[in-house]
Amino acid sequence: MEATPDGNESSRDVKTLISFYSNYLWNRLSTLFPSSPSNFLEKISNLSRQTPLPISTKRRAGLPLPLRSNSFNSTPTTPEASRVYEVLNDIMDRSILNLHKTQNNLQFWQSRAEGSNARKVYFMIFERGPRAFVNGSVQLMRESVTDGSAMLHLSNSASAYISERIAVLSSLRCSLAAFLAEFYIEVDKCGEELVKDPEKSFSSLMVTLNGLFSKLESSIGHLHAMRQSDSSVDGTYSFPLLFEKLPEINLEESQWTVCEINDAINLVYKNLQELDSYLALMVAKHQKPRKVTRYWIRYTCGAVGLSVCSFWLLRHSRLMGSSDIDNWIREASESTVSFFNDHVEQPLLSIRDELLDTFKKRQKGVMDMEEVQLTSNSLHRMLLAFSEQTKGKKFPENASDQEMLEIVMSRYEKELMHPIQNLLNGELARALLIQVQKLKLDIEMAMLELDQILRANEINFAILAALPAFFLSLGLIVVVRAWFRQDTRAEGRGRIARIQRRLLIVEVEKTIMQYQTYVDQGLENDAKCVFGMLIYCLDRLYHAVRRHAMATGEWQCLKQDIIDLGKPGLQTAYKLIVTARMERVYDCLLPSLKRQ
């Protein structure tokens, strides 16, 4: 892996260690200074870039290189061949990551540019931090007093502020996309040679990469000329972008030596690190405001509210000699325990007893069948005796209570003709007592039926008592589930994530058609830029669907379709057929099932 002799290994290790720690310190210091770095920090940054380091040790799961299918199953036989694959993968990864950062910030400014004038003014005053809020408010009031067109001036200032950033980021995006497109096309051309003999084909590819870095240097270098005298960007554009050139090598040789390959790879890594440092500074100067800056008013109000709440709690705490908080905690705990006992524990115990115990094992009810039977037998005997005495004949033991009750009522009606006389000497009092016994029997029968209904619905009442705790638990589960599934990116699981994946397919289709339009019109530079954006969109789609397609067993077919969409020589009509099939066939790209 080393290109220097053995005698210089210790020196190289020391330089690598110094470069690592200087780069680490630079990153830590840069986090403490969110504004543009000072000249002192820039000198430290320049020192940290003197020794090239590998960009990454593990490749992320993104769109693979356009190599032939047998290359995926092949393993490099030599360390040099392995480094060739690693450096090509790192070039593609770093290009896509830098393009993603640029595109992310560009989309933010484009969304702000599409807003109304009032929305732009709101952004300039309220979404750029406290200092911008004070300056914008002062400018707004001053211009309102002087000429009365403060809103118009502030709107024009906001438009210029946003347009400057859109222009720089658009130029950066186009240059990076063109670099990615040319690199991808060159790797596609050398695909078979890279698979067969990566060390031999790397020499010609390295010469092409040298030209691509030079072209990227010239395309980004004109950004200095785009800077206006009244630019709203803080500071200067710092150091220019200068890539290391590939030394003159005899290209007629069939194969480079191991030392030459390692030197070329180190040169590529140094250029990539130089590009990352330059783009990090450029994008940082034109990036969107951080979330804390955009929502600083909300956070300030939240901090003030938290401070007031803390002060209020402090007044009622033991520190101020108050026992209010202790009393509130005790009352809350008692209420919680009472709620748990009444709506969780007792209902569950009742349900358990209802499911496991029979009616016989339960406690005695309000009315038993034996008591009702005793009252019924007593009434039967009373009716039988009254009927025999009234009619003067013997009645059978199984005589109907209804027939005998009719005799009692008939006698009762006659006795009411002379109520006072019959109450003392007649059968009126006896008939009244029989009716009272009959009323008692009816009440006991009704109570017995009611007791049976209550016993049969004990489990229902227990479940009803447990419903508050059930709904409370269900609500907590829903809230926790929504919090865990709040990821709405294309890699997520929810309906919004599925929509985002389908929008990626739409973006891929639009990019393919735009690329073909530029090719037909002969706009080569624009076509390269659009093709680079196509590779970027395919990488996003590849990363978004990978996990879902592997779970459903569709990954191999979907992966090949995505790779086919990135092939430069494939017809546009066939690519559009592939995108239509992807939207129709693969489960992770289908519309949301809830909307069907």
Beta percentage is: under 5%
Q: Spans with pLDDT under 50 lasting ≥5 residues?
A: 1-17, 30-57, 70-75, 358-363
Helical proportion, percent range:
over 70%
If you average the pLDDT, what whole number results?
A: 77
Described by strand count, sense and barrel closure, the largest sheet is: none
Number of helices: 22
Cα separation of the termini: 57 Å
For the secondary structure, the number of strands is 0
Helix-strand sequence: HHHHHHHHHHHHHHHHHHHHHH
Give the helix/strand class.
Answer: mainly alpha
Q: For the CA atoms, what is the radius of gyration?
A: 44 Å
Shape: elongated
Task: Summarize this structure as a short list of keywords or feature phrases.
596 residues; disordered N terminus; mainly alpha; 22 helices
